Amino acid sequence: MSQRPIRIDCLQYANWSEKIFRQMRKGGVDAVHVTIAYHELFRETVARFEEWNERFERWPELIMPGYWASDVEEARRTDRTAIFFGFQNCSPIEDDIGLIEILHRLGARFMQLSYNNQSLLATGCYEAEDPGITRMGREVIREMNRVGLVIDMSHSAERSTLEAIDLSERPIAITHANPSFWHPALRNKSDDVLRQLGRSGGMLGFSLYPHHLSGGSDCRLQDFCDMIARTAELMGVERIGFGSDLVQDQPDEVVEWMRCGRWTKRVDYGEGSRDAPGFPKQPDWFRDNRDWPGVEKGLRKAGFSEEDVVRIMGGNWLAFYEKSFRPATRAT
Amino acid sequence: MSQRPIRIDCLQYANWSEKIFRQMRKGGVDAVHVTIAYHELFRETVARFEEWNERFERWPELIMPGYWASDVEEARRTDRTAIFFGFQNCSPIEDDIGLIEILHRLGARFMQLSYNNQSLLATGCYEAEDPGITRMGREVIREMNRVGLVIDMSHSAERSTLEAIDLSERPIAITHANPSFWHPALRNKSDDVLRQLGRSGGMLGFSLYPHHLSGGSDCRLQDFCDMIARTAELMGVERIGFGSDLVQDQPDEVVEWMRCGRWTKRVDYGEGSRDAPGFPKQPDWFRDNRDWPGVEKGLRKAGFSEEDVVRIMGGNWLAFYEKSFRPATRAT
């Protein structure tokens, strides 16, 4: 097992359980970035940290908190999964820039500046207009850079994303999305965004959420891996990894919370539709964390060298974690 | 300077400013335990941490956050004061035991189980009845032991204090009080409490707040140091240090907040009185942090050996910090 590449999944939102933690061990997942807030305000987000503290106390042989890149190696050495925390929206900081350092101290390592809609900081990918990064957004980017909280633009709109890449003094991430050249969903990213992201030292995590896949639930592994090869050419093989967006064992109420939060009293179907409002079916080659070895094989079959497979499976994320999570003024 | 004993003051509540931080450097204070909550609920307490983060950013050459015992030595090496945080009441955890680990992660290292009044956990020293540690109190003691948050019984009543000493699996502290054999204030502690505290490996911090001093503001340094010598005989010279309770540059509204919080609409004068409701005048030999060298001389004059002076000035607190702040299951 110590011979296999480090595996990092940079986005999941499961209904966490011992079953899933054991599946992560079976799939050799050394680290996972888990979403703990979509629309949660500060106190609600703290309650999510509390729930994770309970899990760490209960299953110390399966999981451990991830604060620093070195925790990925510690997890690997002790046959556990390191859990890194992130928010898909900026709601946890409410209107208080001081909460950024507080939440970083509690373990937050990624925060999206907007989730589908306009936020206090940036525009989401479903808005008709995208006026770019706001005044508060500029201050928050600076503060996130200072403390070591990674800017994630997965659900943000084009102009806001390009501006965030430009304004941020540290590389940013799009933890879970695919290129729109392959599948033109609103959530997927243009060549321009991907190129700028790559040039700035940022990272893209490939999503395995069916709405982001060409062919949806019927997408074939080889097609997915060929897309990865094309994206590597576009932005550099050092700039890509996975952010599966795996949403396992969640009831359909959860997708409604993700999409509607408290911002509407009506139903917003997001990437779904009235006919298919729930979670889509995963492709049969990626049902859960046990399927990572198959994805790894797919990369080899698509022609990636062993070195590049190691990079894409987790080496690139690990290098990104190393340069991203520490306060800007301290040495890593 | 590297020859002087380590100096730790295990309780202050100042109106913090660059002036006071510089006075701490002049007085050679390597570490201070600062109160950041009297009656503050969780979110208000987080705002206090945010204010301290701003101070750490603004005066990095004078102060640094104190998380572990090793930070005292780091502060000394870099000529700064390490700031350790504590609460004088259990209000920051509200009714949620999960907040203990959250607040420990944010930097809390001491929490009183009650402040003068009955709390959810224990009884305060001004209540007529003291039914001892409550059901939730027992759970909280166990959790504080687990995460490394020190139980402080400075403002608690006798029975609750004795029970806390007994129930806690790790030594507890009375960070700021004096023996009642010297000055029988309600806030001072009985021989029985001090003896049990000493036997269990706990610590007493001597208070320099005039209401806790024999003779009040007119107390003489030699009388104070002779009392320390008697207390050392009672509980052991390894079990004592300072917790000055210095409340510097605070307006009198603050003493009202300390005493009345939101639990009464009338004025409670606490240790003061209608005629003297404000902060009492400090003794002229301890006006602020620059006076620590004088206190140190007083200990020598009272007959303490050089070794014991080193212990009382900070060595004992440092040893206590070393065994107290880490989670119970991990090695220090």
Give a structural overview.
The structure is a homodimer of 332-residue chains. By secondary structure, chain A is an alpha/beta fold. Chain A has one domain: Metal-dependent hydrolases (TIM Barrel, Alpha-Beta Barrel). Helices cover 38% and strands 12% of the residues of chain A. Chain A is built from eleven helices and nine strands. In chain A, helix 1 links the parallel strand 1 (8-12) and strand 2 (31-37). The model of chain A has no long low-confidence stretch (mean pLDDT 96). The interface between A and B is medium-sized, with 17 and 17 residues.
Task: Write the SSE topology.
The structure is a homodimer of 332-residue chains.
Chain A: E1 8-12, H1 18-26, E2 31-37, H2 42-58, E3 63-65, H3 70-77, E4 81-87, H4 99-106, E5 108-112, H5 135-147, E6 150-152, H6 158-167, E7 173-174, H7 191-199, E8 203-206, H8 221-235, E9 240-242, H9 252-260, H10 292-301, H11 306-324
Parallel strand pairs in A: 1-2, 2-4, 3-4, 4-5, 5-6, 7-8, 8-9
Helix pairs in contact in A: 8-10
